[in-house]
Amino acid sequence: MTDNTPQIVAFCCSNCASAAANVAEGMKMTMPGNVKIIQVPCTGRIEVLHLLKPFEEGADGVYVAGCQEDSCQYVTGITKAAKRVAHVKKILEELEIEPDRIEVFNLSAGKGQEFVEMAHEMTGKIKGLGPVLP
Amino acid sequence: MSEYKSGSNLEKVLKAGHFAFTGECGPPQGANVEHLVEKAGHLKGYVDAVNVTDNQTAVVRMSSWAASLILLEQGLEPNFQMVCRDRNRLAIQSDILGVYSHGIRNMLCLSGDHQKFGNHPDAKNVFDIDSMQLIHTVKTMRDEGTFLNGQKIDVPPKLFIGAASNPFAEPFDFRVYRLAKKIAAGADFIQTQCIYNMDRFREFMKRAVDMGLHEKCYILAGVTPMKSVGMARYMAKQVPGMDVPDTLIKRLRSAGKGKIAAEGIQFAVEQIEEFKEMEGIAGVHLMAIEWEHRVPEIAEMAGVLPRPKV
Amino acid sequence: MIVAEPKPIKEILEMVRDLKKILIVGCKGCVTVCNVGGSKEVAILASTLRIAAKKNGKEIEIGEETLERQCDPEYIEEIKDIINDYDAVISIACGVGPQFLSERYPATRVFPGVNTRFMGGAIEHGIWSERCAGCGTCVVHYFGGLCPIARCSKSLLNGPCGGSNNGKCEISGDVDCIWDIIVRKMMEQGRLDELLEFKPPKSWMTARDGGPRTMTREELVK
């Protein structure tokens, strides 16, 4: 965290979240600069290790933005991602790190505004928690 | 040679063709001998033998053989219970020799509740042999005069061998066969699980009689009077292998406040009356749990007094 | 396979509290199949320990290795050139792994990173169930191909006990009563008479009760 701006990594599904990002761009809405987006073909392939690595590298928060559970492009991709996020929450808890530092969000392609809002929401929340490191 | 297998009072009563009536007494969770003597005292003269439970529900209590000896001193005949959960075949055989040496003549062979239920769930269990094999062990020691390894016993223990049967546990169709298996393994008498579902029990006994099991073994029907609606519900839901019909719970409830216990006793008495007439039933095993003082009254109402002297 | 589960991270952190250079060693055998001790899990544990160290402001160096197996000396040998670079090893193989490592590298401290649970299989992805107790004398053919020693809570050979409840064991509604399954299967197969035969006490001599076990097959010994 530099100047009280948290570093956040967002894993975004290319089927919904990226499309939503395009919509947001069309609406001239800007993403906060502290959120680093990693586009993935499907959130179902994000492993526990991928979710841990940003924390290891100094990130203050991580989130996954994927499809709605009932309309996932690859059927169960987002469900799997949600379970892995839940697992990482447990690991963080055991490390006495706030589990709220990792979240999963559901989107659909048209929701440009929501895509940007979730970035702000996460930034606000992590700011409230402060940095991971002492 | 004696005409009896063990010569216990229970065996003599049964062999003489009397309707047997046995009671039960759980040893204390401590060394409170006074309390045990008091509880057992209520049964004296009202039952033919008293089952002494062995760490029942896997809760640590005074050992069953020790409590049995105390009962013996009080002039009661114990039916020493042993479970396979806490002992291996060495301890089992040596305890059998021990209890026999001290005058115990009846023994009930059980698997034992899993320790997970009890007050030492972290314990390691034994289950070296199962209840069927325990029956067989006691029979081998008595009739062959050998230990399980075939070695001769210098003065073999002569015990009247009991086993349990749960007519209500699943799979129902197999239960009567398992009873047959216990009898074949060496059981001289059977005490059943507490009976509440009379329809199902009648069906079970019909099958047992059809197979001629009642001619090979004395079957004692298990009766536990309900003290309250709460107890009935607990038995129905929490106790594995227990079948408590809703009609009984309704009957108890409709007896009204202050009269439920009396209704529970009334039902038990009706059961005993029916068992006296039921083909294949040689007696009743009354498990009045922490209600030993009500046993004389129940025995009186059920018309099983006085107990025969044989 | 041998089924294991991760140890709580707190327990592992406590074990290696004062150590700075740690080698995490995985195994490509059973524990890879049950997703607890393969290369993936080595990386996850390494990352977790690094995060913990960072959070606590400590310097830590973690090496990651995954061996073909930890139950064969030839693979244990593969880390001989690097093991001395570390203060300690965390093995996330079954209980065999840390012991083979300890025996081969007597100067190195070895910690177990998983709890070995049982011999069993995956009944579905993510759910494992016990099947074998390793008693050393298999008798499943008497019981419809199912093992009452491993799967009955009381290891009854003449079951089922009176605690069988609607197909479930008295210890828990989540545990199947294997005897209920055995009886139904034997009845369906018309083999009830076999179950009526008394099964005598089992010899536990070939099980753990006979003492720690070693097996020699002369035709294979060099």
Describe the structure.
The complex is a heterotrimer of chains A (134), B (310) and C (222). With 134 residues, chain A is of the alpha/beta class. In chain A, 41% of the residues lie in helices and 19% in strands. Chain A has four helices and four strands; from the N terminus they run βαβαβαβα. In chain A, strands 2-1-3-4 form a four-stranded parallel sheet, with helices on both faces. Chain A starts with 7 loop residues before the first strand and ends in a 5-residue tail after the last helix. The mean pLDDT of chain A is 91. Chain B is an alpha/beta fold. Chain B has one domain: TIM Barrel (Alpha-Beta Barrel), CATH 3.20.20. Chain B has helices at residues 9-15, 33-41, 64-73, 89-101, 131-144, 172-185, 198-210, 229-238, 246-254, 260-277, 295-302, and strands at residues 20-25, 49-52, 78-83, 106-110, 160-165, 189-194, 218-223, 281-286. An eight-stranded parallel β-barrel of chain B has the order 1-2-3-4-5-6-7-8, surrounded by six helices. Chain B starts with 8 loop residues before the first helix and ends in an 8-residue tail after the last helix. Chain C folds into two domains: 2-118, Rossmann fold (3-Layer(aba) Sandwich), CATH 3.40.50.2300; 133-209, no CATH class. Chain C is 27% helix and 23% strand. Chain C has a four-stranded parallel sheet with strand order 3-2-4-5, with helices on both faces. In chain C, strands 1-6-7 form a three-stranded antiparallel sheet. Chain C is elongated, with a radius of gyration of 22 Å. The mean pLDDT of chain C is 97. Chains in contact: A-C, B-C. The interface between A and C is medium-sized, with 16 and 15 residues.
